[in-house]
Design a protein that fits this description.
206 residues; alpha+beta; Lipocalin; ten-stranded antiparallel beta barrel
Length: 206
């Protein structure tokens, strides 16, 4: 579900995440903290199962190219383009992602937290934007080239003040070890799905 949360709460959550990250680093031995960043292969080996085989493709630093296509959810009538960076790291049983994109319509920044739900054999994603929007998503592994399917839903308030349900379905497609594509479609009310977001991620050389 997507919802607007108070900025004070959003800041509290983000501060908590940053404090947790600092605490995690502080637990490492001093000599480990002084060592250079671990290669990507070593990062993958540190993930717990089944994340080690499912989500290792996300780890590391990326350059991103973003497109937000005309759609009724974001309200843009022209294509919005931009680019920026993304970085995914793991902390214990959680993967943390930080994404920032500059676009022709302003800056988009958010954090994501991914963890495995063993009882349902899916991954949960908690996403929070710098504007104070929180979204709970699910990510399901598949056997196709679109390796993962993302799903979330919520309510959209129209200009007339009416709330209408929406659904977003998306997929990650792994092109190579250095390129991943994410694309999504959105459906509002009883309308058909229309293209929503396209994101190309190009891995930054280690």
């Amino acid at each position: 579900m997507s919802s607007r949360i108070p900025k004070s709460l959003a800041l509290s959550i983000l501060c908590g995440c940053l404090l947790f990250s600092q605490w995690a680093y502080a637990q490492a031995p001093a000599e480990q903290a002084a060592a250079p960043a671990a290669p990507l292969a070593e990062q993958k080996m540190g993930l717990p199962a089944p994340m080690d085989k499912d989500l290792a493709f996300l780890l590391g630093k990326w350059e991103t190219k973003l497109k937000i296509l005309p759609n009724p959810l974001s309200g843009n009538t022209e294509e919005i383009k931009g680019g920026g960076t993304a970085e995914y790291q793991f902390f214990g049983k959680v993967i943390q992602g930080t994404l920032a994109n500059e676009t022709s319509n302003g800056k988009y920044e958010f954090k994501e937290f991914l963890w495995y739900d063993e009882s349902n054999n899916i991954y949960n994603i908690f996403s929070i934007s710098s504007e104070g929007y929180a979204i709970n998503k699910t990510l399901t592994p598949t056997k196709s080239s679109e390796k993962f399917v993302v799903h979330y839903s919520g309510t959209h308030k129209t200009n007339a003040g009416k709330e209408i349900k929406f659904t977003v379905q998306a997929k990650y497609k792994i092109i190579s070890d250095t390129e991943v594509k994410y694309s999504s479609d959105v459906k509002i009310g009883n309308a058909d799905f229309v293209p929503f977001i396209q994101l190309k991620m190009q891995r930054v050389s280690q």
